[in-house]
Specification:
The protein is an all-beta fold and about 110 residues long. The chain has no helices and 11 strands. A hairpin with a 6-residue loop joins strand 4 and strand 5. The model has no long low-confidence stretch (mean pLDDT about 95).
Length: about 110
């Protein structure tokens, strides 16, 4: 059974940076389509970025130019580099893997 473990969240001031990582374990399956989502209390989980096995990448408009998603297949890991963070980026960030596997989430708080 595949498990996803996120890390790298924390508290950062506006304009700062954080890097999230998500490692898949428990299966020899390829990374395939993987993505980051985020959720704030009272709101639906929203798409942030995705990367597929062919290296195709998409971002939500709200993070374009500030966030970068990448992958390390040898380590079964995807990364989300977040720069120029804003208070509205505050959320729990979740890693997602096809066919419907979610990580436990990592809290990102952007505040002065």
């Amino acid at each position: 059974q595949v498990q996803l473990v996120e890390s790298g969240g924390g508290l950062v001031q506006p304009g700062g940076s954080l890097r999230l990582s998500c490692t898949a374990s428990g299966s020899s399956s390829s990374m395939n389509y993987m993505a980051w989502y985020r959720q704030t209390p009272g709101r639906q989980r929203e798409f942030v970025a995705r990367i597929d096995n062919g290296g195709n990448i998409n971002y939500a408009d709200s993070v374009k130019g500030r966030f970068t998603i990448s992958r390390d297949n040898a380590k079964n890991t995807i990364l989300l580099q977040m720069n120029s963070l804003k208070p509205e980026d505050t959320a729990v960030y979740y890693c997602f893997k096809v066919p419907g596997i979610w990580g436990q989430g990592t809290q990102v708080t952007v505040s002065s």
